[in-house]
Amino acid sequence: MPALLLRKLSQAARRNELAWRYTFNLGPALKFRITRSGLSAEAARVVRDLNRQGIALTSAEELFGECGLFGELQSAVAGLEQTLSGQLHEARQAAGDLLTGREKAFLYELLGPRPTLDPGSIFARFALSRPILQIANAYFGMYTRLRYYNVWHTFVTSGQPRQSQLWHRDREDQLILKLFVYLDDVDLEAGPLTYAPGTHLKGAIRQTPECFKENGVWRSTDQQMAAVVPCERWITAVGRKGTIVFADTHGYHKGGLARGRDRILYTCMFTSPASESAELLSRPKTLPLPAEKDLAFALSAPKRGPLAAWRPRG
Q1: What is the phi/psi pair of residue 116, to 5°?
Q2: Which one in 16, 19, 36, 38 has a CA-CA gap of 20 to 30 Å to 207?
Q3: What is the pLDDT of residues 151-183, one digit of tens each?
C-alpha cells in the first residue's frame, strides 16, 4: 500500500475516538490501568472538572502543599527575566507593530522557540511532578507524553485581537492537556485564558462556530463563539500568583489579550502517545530514563510514521 495512502487512512482513523483510544493508544491505556495509583482529593477534583468542563483551576499550594517546586520555578523565571531584559525590551517594542509579521509578536518565549528537554531542570521537573503527571494520565486514561514546556511573557498590546487572542482549538491530538502556572497575578487586564466549556472531546457541545482563516489557522470572534456557547458560560481563568490552570486546548479557547499589564506564566503540554504532531522540544541524543514507568514513558520520544503507535514499546 503506498505510504501516502497509508498515512491518510491512519489520520482518518485517529479522528475516530474509539480507534484513537483502543487501537492507536491501546498499549499505554492498558499500562495505565494496570499501574495507576490513587489521586489526592484535590487532584481528583481537578480531573472531574476537566472531564466535565475541559478546564480546571487550582493552585500550587492546594496541589503541592508545602513542596518547594513553585518557589524554585519562581526563582528560575526571575533569573531568566533579568538575563533576558534586553531582548524583552526589544520584543516589547516589536509587539506594538502589527506589520512585523512575526508569529505571536505579543508573546515572548523565555526558553526559546524550541527548548532543549532537560529532565533535571525545574521546567521539566515541575511538569513531571507526581500530582501533575497523575492528573494528566488520569484525564487521558493512559500514559501520556510530555511534549512541550516554556515560560511565556505576554506584552500589553492595543491592536485588534489576532492569532491566539481569537477563539481557536489546538490540533495536536484528540485530547490535549496544557498547564498554565501564573507567576504574577492575572486579572482581566493581563489577558487571561478564556475557555468555552463543553467544547472538548469529552464535552457535550459538538457544534462548531463560524470561523475564518488567519495565516492558515481557523479563528472565531467573540460574536461567532457566543452563537455556540453563550458568553455568560465562558470561563475566564483569572487568578493570583500561584494559580494553576489545567485546560484541554482541543476545546475552544483564547488568551493573551493583555490590555493593562503583562502576563508571565509557565506552561507545559501533554498529548497521547499516538499524537504525530511536530516535536516542540529539542531532544538530546542520549536521554537516560528514570526507573518509574510513567516518568520514563512521559520522557520517551514520540513515535513516527502512520503505524508507529501500533507497535508500542517500553
Answers
A1: -80, 125
A2: 19
A3: 999 999 888 999 999 999 999 999 999 999 999
Rounded to whole angstroms, how far apart are CA atoms 136 and 71?
Answer: 22
Q: For the chain, give the percent of residues with pLDDT over 90.
A: 79
pLDDT 10s digits, 281-313 = 999 989 999 999 999 999 998 875 443 433 332
Q: How confident is the model at residue 97 (pLDDT cuts 50, 70, 90)?
A: low
- Cell 494553576 belongs to which residue? 244
Angle between helix 85-95 and helix 69-83 axes, rounded to 10 deg: 80
Q: Quick one: how far is CA 23 from the chain centroid?
A: 24
Grid cell in block for residue 213: 482563516
Report yes or no: 272 and 142 within 8 Å, Cβ to Cβ.
yes
41-275 maps to which CATH number? Answer: 2.60.120.620
Tell me the C-alpha distance between 172 and 18, whole Å: 17
Decide: pTM greater than 0.85. Answer: yes
- What is the end-to-end Cα distance of the chain in Å, rounded? 28
Residues ≥6 apart with Cβ < 8 Å to 115 = 123, 148, 149, 150, 281, 282
